[in-house]
Amino acid sequence: MPRPTLGNTDVRISVRAASVNFPDTLIIEGKYQVQPELPFTPGFEVAGVITEVGSGVTEYTVGQKVMALIGAGYGGFAEEAVTDQHTAELIPDGMDYTTATAFYSCYGTSFHALVQRGRLGADETLLVLGAAGGIGLAAIEIGKALGARVIAAAGSPEKLAMAKAHGADELINYRQHDLRGAIRNATRGKGVDVCIDAVGGDAFHAASREMAQGGRLLVVGFASGSIPSVAVNLLLLKGYSVVGVYWNTFVQSNPAEKARNSKELARLYAAGKLQPLVSNTYPMKAVAEALKAVNTRKAIGKLVLTVP
């Protein structure tokens, strides 16, 4: 592929690591909201070194180490990537490239979801669906840091053990137990104050029927492959909200608020309260293997491609 062109407010990044995310599989299948022309390079989250800046760049200089979203939504699984300066962020002290690319969007998304969109309170109950994924583990840690009681739901004992290790208070295996009944038991019939859902499908439907009065059901993604619909009579009867969370738009439209979030996340990381899990790394030539692991929902935590 040709080198990406550099816009006035863009930075060019020499990529050292790129995380593999579920939307990468969707964009390849032509099922994502962004549908680039062929041929294209997937990947939207990278970490590396700035090698060039546009004439209008005010926030960064050549040689700085950054983690970044690729504004176009693709182009990250490469030796170089270009993106607008507002979608990049300096890597916190003590964090390596592999950890940085696993940290940036998962923790940014989860924090934005729980704080701005979900308004999670210290005395509330948080349900995390898909609890062993990148978003799920980040949500558990952030939920605990905010003082919430966290219920983690996942589909295997291994995944639940990882959720427990990252701070979950209660565990639900939704392949062995009825999810709706397990949620009711875990909340003693009171329902869930906030649910963060990156799974969709049947898990969403179960959670939607066990929300508390005034609850917030946060829609982050559809790793199950099934996009659910909500019975709006439930919203009427229970008085809860279904709230969409799309961090990419937030990053580009609210840079000041995103910067405040990032500062708090860096503080929590430095305090040892956030511990990103990279379960496996792959050389770039093994990208298909990494994508398959994500697409079949076998991954725990994050998978990362490395560039020599």
Walk me through this protein's architecture.
This protein is of the alpha/beta class and 308 residues long. It folds into two domains: 10-91 and 277-306, Quinone Oxidoreductase, Chain A, domain 1; 106-247, Alpha-Beta Complex (Quinone Oxidoreductase, Chain A, domain 1), CATH 3.90.180. The protein has helices at residues 22-28, 97-117, 134-145, 157-165, 179-186, 201-208, 232-238, 247-253, 255-270, 287-295, and strands spanning 10-20, 45-53, 65-69, 80-84, 88-90, 125-129, 149-154, 170-173, 192-197, 211-219, 241-244, 278-283, 302-306. Strand 9 (192-197), helix 6 (201-208) and strand 10 form a beta-alpha-beta unit. The longest helix has 21 residues, at 97-117.
Helix and strand arrangement:
Blueprint: E1 10-20, H1 22-28, E2 45-53, E3 65-69, E4 80-84, E5 88-90, H2 97-117, E6 125-129, H3 134-145, E7 149-154, H4 157-165, E8 170-173, H5 179-186, E9 192-197, H6 201-208, E10 211-219, H7 232-238, E11 241-244, H8 247-253, H9 255-270, E12 278-283, H10 287-295, E13 302-306
Based on the model shown, name its key terms.
alpha/beta; Quinone Oxidoreductase, Chain A, domain 1; 2 domains; 10 helices; 25% strand
